[in-house]
Amino acid sequence: MRIALLVLVALSAFATAGAGELTQAARARLLAAYPDDLARIEDGELVWRDGTRMPLDDGKGEKSFADWLNDPDIEDTLAVPYPMGDLKSPPAKDVDPGRARNAAFFDKIYGDCRKGAVKGKLTTVVWLPKKSGQRLPFSKINGAARALEAVSQELDRLPERFDAYLYPSAGTYNCRPIAGTRRMSAHGHGIAIDIALKHADYWRNAKPGKDGAYAYKNEIPTEIVRIFEKHGFIWGGKWHHYDTMHFEYRPELAGGGP
Ligand SMILES: [Zn+2]
């Protein structure tokens, strides 16, 4: 009975957040993804090059989905593995790899736009120079704009049938909270792009079923997703709470790391 109960408790908790839960590979990926800022992980803390220390684990234990999303520690943001490559099946209920962001971490890397600390870190990326030429502001921190530029060059070479998915881009930098929340969007850090609105699907426009799950919808071709992922972007189409026009630069999760 006691064992059965423990199993139930383990299943009902959404993300494991205990100390030491993060694999060595995930730790290595995190450090490798932000080489200008992060020095090492020591005694359960992330040690920044400027000497700042942040705990990987906030000690709040296992979290519900809502707490994982709204108040993740650094470990929580890496706890749900991001599946690279072609989507085999729709994401399971509440599986949103990369959707939880630790605000202190991202504010420190890219700046807090509400304090005017992001605009000066933006540069311009020319979106699909041959096809579109739209000028998009994007963060130059940590190679984000360089990565988008590489994506843009590759997408520009795709056949014409992909055009309607790609441009005009629905936007990049935008200092705003995520719709329906007070959490800052990755767009506020200048590291997210929405491709064309025309074929976009968004969970907020769907009605959940009886079990609270959203029926998955996507029209974005996998060829486009693969190019973004190769350069360190994750795709909102791999979230149960899908946002299929949304890509964000998260090299700790994507990019073919270890
Ligand atoms: Zn977006």
Class derived from helix and strand content = alpha+beta
Helix content: 25-40%
CATH topology of the largest domain: Muramoyl-pentapeptide Carboxypeptidase, domain 2
> How many distinct beta strands?
8
What are the main properties of this structure?
single chain, 258 residues, alpha+beta, Muramoyl-pentapeptide Carboxypeptidase, domain 2, 2 domains, three-stranded antiparallel β-sheet, 8 strands, globular, binds zinc ion
Describe this structure in words.
With 258 residues, this protein is an alpha+beta fold. It has 8 helices and 8 strands; from the N terminus they run H-H-E-E-E-H-H-H-E-E-H-H-E-H-E-E. It has 2 domains: 1-79, no CATH class; 113-258, Muramoyl-pentapeptide Carboxypeptidase, domain 2 (2-Layer Sandwich), CATH 3.30.1380. A 3-stranded antiparallel beta sheet has the order 1-2-3, with helices on one face. A 3-stranded antiparallel beta sheet has the order 6-8-7. A two-stranded antiparallel sheet has the order 4-5. The N and C termini lie far apart (40 Å). It binds zinc ion. The site of zinc ion has 5 residues, from strand 6.
Compact overview of the structure:
This protein has helices at 2-12, 24-33, 65-70, 74-79, 103-110, 144-156, 163-166, 222-230, and strands at residues 38-42, 45-48, 53-55, 122-127, 134-139, 192-194, 233-235, 246-249. With 258 residues, it is of the alpha+beta class.
SSE layout and pairing:
Blueprint: H1 2-12, H2 24-33, E1 38-42, E2 45-48, E3 53-55, H3 65-70, H4 74-79, H5 103-110, E4 122-127, E5 134-139, H6 144-156, H7 163-166, E6 192-194, H8 222-230, E7 233-235, E8 246-249
Antiparallel strand pairs: 1-2, 2-3, 4-5, 6-8, 7-8
Helix pairs in contact: 6-8
